[in-house]
Every structure is written in C-alpha cells, then in structure tokens.
Amino acid sequence: MSRPCIDLSLYLVLDPDLCGGFDGMVRTAEIAAQNGATVVQLRAPQWKKRELVECGRALKKVLDPLNVPLIVNDHADVCVAVDAAGLHVGQQDLSPDDARPLIGPDRVLGLSVSSMAELEAVDTSLVDHLGVGPIFDTATKKDAAAQLGMEGFARLAARKPCPIVAIGSVKAAMAEALFKAGTDGLAVVSAICGQKDPALSTRLLRKAIDANLACR
Amino acid sequence: MSRPCIDLSLYLVLDPDLCGGFDGMVRTAEIAAQNGATVVQLRAPQWKKRELVECGRALKKVLDPLNVPLIVNDHADVCVAVDAAGLHVGQQDLSPDDARPLIGPDRVLGLSVSSMAELEAVDTSLVDHLGVGPIFDTATKKDAAAQLGMEGFARLAARKPCPIVAIGSVKAAMAEALFKAGTDGLAVVSAICGQKDPALSTRLLRKAIDANLACR
Predict the structure, then answer these.
(1) Does the beta-carbon distance from B92 to A53 stay under 8 Å?
(2) Which range marks the domain in which residue B141 is found?
(3) Is A71 within a domain?
(4) Global confidence as pTM
(5) Probe site for chain A from B22, B53, B94 (most A CB atoms < 10 A)
(6) Nearest residue in B to A54, CA atom
(7) Residue at B162 is within a domain
(8) ipTM of this predicted complex?
(9) pLDDT tens digits along A108-138
(10) Interchain proximity A102–B95, CB inside 8 Å
(11) Interchain CB distance below 8 Å, A77 and B50
(12) What's the total number of domains in chain B?
C-alpha cells in the first residue's frame, strides 16, 4: 500500500456544535458522503480523545462502504488508532517532520497554510495537500489567520506545490472563482454542517464543483 | 529494551500557569529533578502540539542527564515524537487498549483512576502504574473527579493491582499517611510549581518521602 489518491473536490470538515454533537456528526458525514462529499475530516478541538476515537470509528463505519476517506485533524495518535486515511495539521500542530513518521508512509498528510511564506516552506516529500485559507473570515475556527480574500487566494494558488483546497466561508457560489484561481477542491464546514437540508446543500455544492471541473 | 523501571516516589506534574509558561516549566523541572523529583510529567491541556513537542524536547534535554524520565500527558503522538519514557492517560483520554500499540512495548503507561470501579477495570498487561486521586480537591485540574479523602484513598490503595501514586493537593505533611495507606509515591503539582523556592519545596517533599520509604 502507498498513500491513497484522495479526491479533494468536496472536502467536508465536521463541526460538532453545528452538527449537534457525536450522532449529528456521523449522520451529517453519511448524508454528505452519499450526496457528493469526497473526503471527511473529523475536527473537534474541544473533545477528549476517548470520544474522538469513538467518533472516528463510527465515521469510518459509515464512510468506508461509500469509499469516502476519513482524515483526522491535529491528533496523529487518534488518526492511527482509528486507522484513518490521513491526518490534517495546522501551523501550530505537529510539524510535518514530526507527523509523517507517526502516521507512516501510507497515510495522506494535509497542512493548513495562510500565507505565501507558509506555502513556500511546504515540503512535498512529507505533505500531500494543503488547505489554503481562510478565504473569508469564518465563525467556525476561532484561531484562524486573517482572511486572504479571493485575490490573496489566487496568488497562493498560482504557486501551489501540490493539490490544494480552499477553506474559510466557502459557498457554492464561489466555486467558479476558486477553481479558476486554481483550487483542486472546496473545503466546507457550515455550508453543510447545520444546514436545514444537508443532502440538498451537498448536492448543490457538488453540482457547482462538477460544472467547474468539467470546464478545466 | 523493555519498559523502564520508574521510581515513582516523587512525581512532578508540571503546570504551565503555575510555572509561568514554557521556560518556567523547563526551569522548574530541572530544579525539581536536581532536588529529588524522580519523574516529571508534561501536562499542558491548553497548548497546541507544536509547543508541546518543543517543550517535551527541552525537558528531555535537562532531565536526561539527571536520569529523570519524562512522561507526557494525554498525547501519545507527542510522547512518541519527543521519545518520552511514557504516557499518562485519564479515563476520557485514549484507552489503554488504544494507547499501548501507539507507544509500543518499551514505554510506561500510567492511568488515572478515581474510584474502585476504575481500579478494578485496570488491565496490568497494558498499564504500568496508576495515579489515584484526587485525594483532596484541587485547583490545578478543572475536570477532576470528586475527592477521595484519605479513607477513600486507603480503600483503593489496599486493592492496587500495580504501583500507584497519590495525587490531588498532596503536601509533604501527608506523606506518612499516604505511604501507610500503601502509596508508592506522591504526585504533586502546586507543592512544587509556583512555589517561591521550588528547590527547597522539593527537598522537603523528598525528605518526608524518604523517611516513610525507610520505615516500610
């Protein structure tokens, strides 16, 4: 086995508050995966690890049959314990140098970057893809960096050393601009989590993404 | 190599607030290790992992020459990344079942227990020692269980399946009662961290412990 090729086109980052807790996260993930999300990230910085591991296993149970990979945020130990497909780290989390040996050669490693300096420092022998943002200010990540705006994102995307997803208040209506700027996918939280009809929200995102992928 | 034998007699749990941050934690650890602490735990639940890893490495640098082992709280990934001697988990952290394969067979694994039910559930094929407490209510751990009191501690200590340390507002004056009850060591936070003279505080604890160890 080697690192799986992950379709980043519609990357759902779960939020426990917006989803209504453990069960809501699993339900949201399943609905999203059934309706076009291609990868799901478990992110719950306020949770203890016992619950994270349980939730990771519950997510794998619904996602594996749909062939949608699970990525764990921040915690390499939880990632390995639940046998997730990958780990995602921010600039204050484990460094890629430290994370890669912990997760082994067969999992994907994603890294958040918010500036040209962070982008230029990326070692693609360790990191498989980047989350680039926040495009716009977001309520779902309290310690996020300053927003890049569409122009700032385009400047980073033009220099991407590996596949990237755009993150930070991303909505379906922004798909065209973001794909034109060079993104490989949209990462969303509140555009799916906590939506009245997450299946419909996912399908609308999927449609907007496919329209742009088809025209590349 | 197999699991190291760890002298639990004076077990310092670092607190970043009481120690005054990163540098204060390293300084406190070094002073304590020079004056009789036998094991040091890195615990900073409010920190991101980049800082935890850096601090773990800085702690190892001062503790290794003194032959005082470092134990990392909660994070198996940080524990392995900094090559600590062991991991300590609570009941809401990684389960011993999940933690043991992550840290491998050669590191010690400590577990917090607060009740007879938790004590009786301990699997000593996975867990090397226990932190039993809180003996008395403590300000340094916000999510601690109800205090055991000295009698409650003695009831648990009488049934210990492996070595234990007493934790929770432990002071030098309690050494006699705790060792008589069957503890193998005292775990302290505020009895060393943030003390005006941590070297003196450590030596007084050491003296109280040695007096009781000698009489067993």
Answers:
(1) no
(2) 10-213
(3) yes
(4) 0.94
(5) B94
(6) B94
(7) yes
(8) 0.92
(9) 999 999 999 999 999 999 999 999 999 998 7
(10) no
(11) no
(12) 1
